[in-house]
Amino acid sequence: MSTTQHPANLHGADARPAALLPAPTPTPWQGPGVVCAVAEQNGQAAWVVNADTGSFTARVAASCLLQPQVGDTVWCCGIVGEGEVARYWVTQVLERIESAGARVQLPADATLASADGRMSLHAQALQVRSQRLDLLVEQASVIGAAWEAVVGAVKLTGNSLRSVFERVTHTAQHHQRVTSGIDLVQAEVLDLRAGQLASVQGEHVIVQGERLIKSRAAQIHMG
User: Residue 45 sits in which domain range?
Assistant: First the structure.
């Protein structure tokens, strides 16, 4: 009767199984590249970069606030591998064409803070766009040659309002003023004119003139 030998016995008692090949290890990489196109990766904005090692799609690192543009020379880092193992990021924008603009983008719910409590913005023109703007300050000072505002509604609430102007011109279709205390007007010349009706009412009405009081009309009713 023939007997079946175990495969391990075919090569002797000292035979051992063949060793497995090690899995490829992802290799870190960094170097310069040139942005050649805008892409999308996992629903997020990404950029196609050409480097010495080839082309790849990279996302912007969280610390890179200056958004890359096509034609920029950038510094990238990443992990070289197959499939989802390969990942690349743009960490810095090294060079840009002078005529191209710059866009600094912060993540959502960002806050700008200064360690010493002081921060300055300098620009020939500054534009702020927002659906809502809230300013919380203890004291504000605005110095400028001209101030122009076009708004739908203005509401001011405070304890005191003081303004000093060389000339004030106010034009409105309807003007209403309510004063619960004293309403005082001082002027060298006071001219009040009404196109249809001028009415002065009060519990006591006093009109004084040091030299002359003159009333002129087609009809004058007293009493």
Answer: 35-78
Domains of the chain: total: 1
Which residues have C-beta within 8 Å of that of residue 57, sequence separation ≥ 6?
39, 41, 46, 47, 48, 49, 88
Please indicate, yes or no, if residue 215 is contained in any of the structural domains.
no
- Whole-number pLDDT of residue 184: 93
pTM beyond cutoff 0.70: no
Q: Residue 109 domain-assigned?
A: no
Can you tell me the mean pLDDT for 161-165? 90
- Is 59 among the domain residues? yes
| Burial track 152-183 (b if 16+ CB lie within 10 A, e otherwise) | eeeeeeeeeeeeeeeeeeeeeeeeeeeeeeee
